[in-house]
Amino acid sequence: MKYSDFRSDTVTQPTSGMRRAMADAPLGDDVFGDDPTVNALQTSTAQQLGFDAALFAPSGTMTNLMALMSHCQRGDEVICGQQWHTYRWEGGGMAVLGSIQPQPLEHGADGTIALAAIEAAIKPDDPHFARTRLIAMENTTGGKVLPLAYLQSVGELAKRRGLAAHLDGARLFNAATATVQTMNVSTWDAARLICQPFDSVSVCLSKGLGAPMGSLLLGSNNLIARAKRIRKMLGGGMRQAGVVAAGGQFALDNHVERLAQDHALMAALARDLDSAAQANPKLAGQFTVHPPNTNICFTDADASVADALLDHLNASGIRVTSGLYGSSARRIRWVTHLDVSQADAERAVAAISTF
To answer: What is each CA distance from 173 to 71, 109, 141, 233, 264, in whole angstroms?
Structure first.
């Protein structure tokens, strides 16, 4: 059976153009710093997003950890979100490998953490406490876009309190795509504005953009020099890495503007899923669709129907991810991306209708 795969925007396959770019890429040894394709990717992306330098690594988990360990020493503390990737979804790397204490805070329904809560979590200069050194944000977070003014306020707070600020911008360009709807700027200009309040930013090339692997850490020359040492320590130093870096460069050159298509498809899919569920007597009142901001939508299925619904979706060729939500529901995540078409969306709606 051919599946319609809504699990994540990481499941995309390289396009034919991307494969050609990867096959034709000039190569060197990146650990020695002489892979021309990697160097060009790092230099051009740093310049476009307003940073001194960038560093290519295999994954966003690694570039986030490189950033945290570059900003912090053993015994230092990072203020972060309770549900954010750096705290919840990266295997506890900051604590296990970096000896960095996370201070997770709850965030609101819009994805933001109250500025007063962030400020209250900053520890006084006292040997009883870990030393607060960094505020780590995430945008998008759960598909939600953090407002530009809010990000600027976080950056100002960090500067005022002598802290550094890091952004997990795995889906930076999804955030930028949504931001341009309210601003008369390009997607790249919006991405640069989102990055401005931060001392470092991690950008994923395989989420949404369609590269097979790779992320970039952006920051000052000094920070990237520290991060390069940490990348080697973590086993992230690659040799002829230009093969995969070329896929990332192709993605940045060709797939940024098309993210708007994924957002539009998700908006229509969410609307149609809701209509189909309300028209289905077995799902009416048992299936809630949360309005999406970008290419990610969450739906909640009541415990009385969740397992049977998930089995039905799988039997219908629809792949999604799910997890328990509270005591009476299962939260199902739907993601549109390069390899999800209008026909896939219609197939998903039909599966909801026929449950």
So the answer is: 24, 21, 13, 29, 15
Q: Is the peptide bond before 140 cis (omega within 30 degrees of 0)?
A: yes
SS3 annotation, 40-97: HHHHHHHHHHCCCEEEEECCHHHHHHHHHHHHCCCCEEEEEECCCHHHHCCCCHHHHC
Positive/negative CA dihedral, 19, 258, 59, 229: positive
Q: What is the CA radius of gyration of the chain?
A: 21
Give the integer Cα–Cα distance in Å for 292 and 7. Answer: 15
pLDDT tens-digit map of 305-342 = 999 999 999 999 999 999 987 777 899 999 999 999 99
Report yes or no on whether pTM surpasses 0.90: yes
* Residue partners of 190: CB distance under 8 A and separation at least 6: 175, 176, 177, 179, 180, 183
